[in-house]
Amino acid sequence: MKIPFTGGCSCGAIRYECTAEPVMMFKCHCRDCQQGTGSGFAPGLLLPRESFRFPRGFCPECGSRITGGEFEGVESPFVGVLAGSLDDPSWFQPQMDIFVSDAQPWDQMDPAIPKFEQYPPLPTEK
Q1: Per-residue pLDDT averaged across 56-84, rounded?
Q2: Which of 119, 99, 123 lies closest to 37 in space, CA to CA?
Q3: Rounded to a whole number, what is the distance in angstroms from the first to the last CA of the chain?
Q4: pLDDT of the residue at 71
Q5: Radius of gyration of the chain, Cα coordinates, nearest whole angstrom
């Protein structure tokens, strides 16, 4: 992975840049992610908010979803970004599966990475 790394939506109208390494990389199996992606999970990265430059969570032109897991009215030191929005998603390596309580029976998870019923323990700010 090269820092900074970049990404954006499928039509190119929205672009972002991150100047720090991800705090964690995961596959989220919650129903919201399943419905939002049309898949069994959403591959995501948790990034330090101060290192992330971005205007909004989805593209109003093409509808691509780029961020996820935000809670309205709650300020967080982190932002979640979908791995598919990276310009080079080949370096994404999930470190855990989260919300496995909602995982579909047909979703084959990697047995080598940790599983969390819901949220994993959040990292502390650096």
Answers
A1: 83
A2: 99
A3: 20
A4: 61
A5: 14
